[in-house]
C-alpha cells in the first residue's frame, strides 16, 4: 500500500512540533504509547486528544464490536493512538513513522483501519434532538419561553480539500480556495445532531440543506420543532432565520444602547443562540487540526475524516464534557450581522412580538421603580 505521504518530503523532522520531538528518543511506538497511557490525563489529552478513561473505553468498544483486533506487533491501543496522533497533530506520515518506528505502509494501514472502524459506529454517536426543552433555553429568561420549540442551530463550514486537477472546478469556493461544504446541525450543548460532508465548495448552502432534508440518511426535524439558521438560508418549514436587513446592538443588559424594535431584539437573541455553531466548529478544529490542512488523502477519505471527527467530538463531549478543549469554547462568540432574506414566516413574527412585549414591560417596571 502506498503511503499518502510518499511525495517529496524534504526534512520530515521539521514537520514535528518542538514539544513532540523529545519522544523521538524512545525505542518504539509501543513504549511511547505506554508512557502516555501510564502518565497523566493531561498528557493523554494532549497527545491522543482525549483523556485516558475515554481512550480506553473507546478501545474496548471497538474491540468488543469486532472492528479492531490486536496484531502480533501492534495492540488496539497503539492502533488508535496512531490515528488520534495523526488527526490531532496534523503530522505527515513520514514524521509519524519516525515517532512510532513503523513503516509508512504500517502507519497508513492502521490509520485506515481505525478510520473505517469509527465510521462503522459513527451513527451511534449522532443522537436526534430530545423532545425536552434544552436547558440552555429553559434556564435563560432571554430565551424562555419564546424559543421552547427550538432544538438547535444549523450552519455550514468549509474544510480545505485536495482533489485532482480535473476535479478542482466545482470544489473552488467563492473565496477561490478548494474546499468541501459541510452542513451541521448542532445542539446547544455543543454536540452534532447531524453532519453532511462532501459537497463541493461551490455548492450553494440552500442546495446542501435541501440535500440533507431529502436524502435517505436525512436531517430530521421533529414535528413542531425548528432549528435556527443564519442569513445564508431561507426561512422554510423547520428553520428560522433572522430578519433581513435589520441591524441590532450587542448591549442589552447593563448598557446604554438597547434594541429599538421587536425585529432588532429578535435578531439579537437569535444570534446569541445561533453562535453555538461557531463554538462547536471551533472546538472541533482545535481537537482535530487535520481538518484544516487539505491532507493528501483520496477525496472519499477526506470526507470520512470530517464525519469521523464529528462523531468522536460527540463521543468525547458525552464522556468528558469538561475537558479543556470544550472549556475553551463554551463562552458565546461575538454577535455577527445579517444579510437580506426573502421570507418572513409567522412563527418568527410571533416570537419577536412576545419577546418585545415582555422586554418593554420589564423596562417600564424598572422605570416605575426608579421614579
TrEMBL record:
Cofactor requirement: a divalent metal cation
Main subcellular localisation: nucleus
Keyword annotations from UniProtKB, A to Z: Hydrolase, Metal-binding, Nuclease, Nucleus
GO molecular function: hydrolase activity; metal ion binding; nuclease activity
Residue span, DUF8040 domain: 25-119
GO cellular component: nucleus
Domain of life: Eukaryota
Chain ranges of the DDE Tnp4 domain: 154-314
Nucleus is among the record's keywords: yes
Compartment(s) of residence: Nucleus
Classification via InterPro entries: DUF8040, HARBI1-like, HARBI1_dom
PANTHER family noted in UniProt: NUCLEASE HARBI1 (PTHR22930:SF273), PTHR22930
UniProt similarity note: Belongs to the HARBI1 family.
Protein name as annotated: DDE Tnp4 domain-containing protein
Taxonomic classification: Eukaryota, Viridiplantae, Streptophyta, Embryophyta, Tracheophyta
Amino acid at each position: 500500500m502506498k503511503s499518502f505521504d510518499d511525495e517529496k518530503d524534504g526534512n520530515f523532522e521539521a514537520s514535528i512540533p518542538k514539544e513532540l520531538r523529545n519522544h523521538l528518543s524512545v525505542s518504539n511506538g509501543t513504549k511511547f504509547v505506554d508512557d502516555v497511557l501510564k502518565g497523566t490525563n493531561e498528557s493523554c489529552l494532549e497527545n491522543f486528544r482525549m483523556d485516558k478513561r475515554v481512550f480506553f473505553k473507546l478501545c474496548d468498544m471497538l474491540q468488543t464490536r469486532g472492528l479492531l483486533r490486536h496484531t502480533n506487533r501492534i495492540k488496539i491501543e497503539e492502533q488508535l493512538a496512531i490515528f488520534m496522533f495523526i488527526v490531532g497533530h496534523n503530522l505527515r506520515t513520514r514524521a509519524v513513522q519516525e515517532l512510532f518506528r513503523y513503516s509508512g505502509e504500517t502507519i497508513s494501514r492502521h490509520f485506515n483501519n481505525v478510520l473505517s472502524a469509527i465510521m462503522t459506529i459513527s451513527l451511534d454517536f449522532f443522537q436526534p434532538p430530545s423532545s425536552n426543552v434544552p436547558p440552555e433555553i429553559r434556564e435563560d429568561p432571554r430565551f424562555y419561553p419564546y424559543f421552547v420549540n427550538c432544538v438547535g442551530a444549523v450552519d455550514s463550514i468549509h474544510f480545505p480539500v485536495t482533489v485532482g486537477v480535473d476535479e478542482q472546478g466545482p470544489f473552488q469556493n467563492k473565496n477561490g480556495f478548494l474546499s468541501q461544504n459541510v452542513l451541521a446541525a448542532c445542539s446547544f450543548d455543543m454536540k452534532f445532531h447531524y453532519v453532511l460532508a462532501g459537497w463541493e465548495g461551490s455548492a450553494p448552502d440552500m442546495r446542501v440543506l435541501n440535500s440533507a432534508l431529502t436524502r435517505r440518511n436525512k436531517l430530521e426535524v421533529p414535528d413542531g420543532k425548528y432549528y435556527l439558521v443564519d442569513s445564508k438560508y431561507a426561512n422554510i418549514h423547520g428553520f428560522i432565520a433572522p430578519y433581513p436587513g435589520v441591524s441590532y446592538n450587542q448591549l442589552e443588559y447593563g448598557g446604554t444602547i438597547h434594541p429599538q424594535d421587536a425585529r432588532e431584539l429578535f435578531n439579537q437573541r437569535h444570534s446569541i443562540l445561533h453562535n453555538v455553531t461557531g463554538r462547536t466548529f471551533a472546538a472541533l478544529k482545535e481537537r482535530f487540526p487535520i481538518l484544516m490542512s487539505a491532507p493528501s488523502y483520496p477525496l472519499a477519505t477526506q470526507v470520512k475524516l470530517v464525519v469521523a471527527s464529528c462523531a468522536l467530538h460527540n463521543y468525547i463531549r458525552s464522556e468528558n464534557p469538561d475537558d479543556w478543549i470544550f472549556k475553551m469554547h463554551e463562552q458565546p462568540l461575538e454577535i455577527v450581522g445579517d444579510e437580506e432574506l426573502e421570507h418572513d414566516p409567522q412563527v418568527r413574527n410571533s416570537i419577536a412580538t412576545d419577546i418585545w412585549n415582555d422586554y418593554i414591560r420589564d423596562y417600564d417596571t424598572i422605570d416605575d421603580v426608579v421614579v
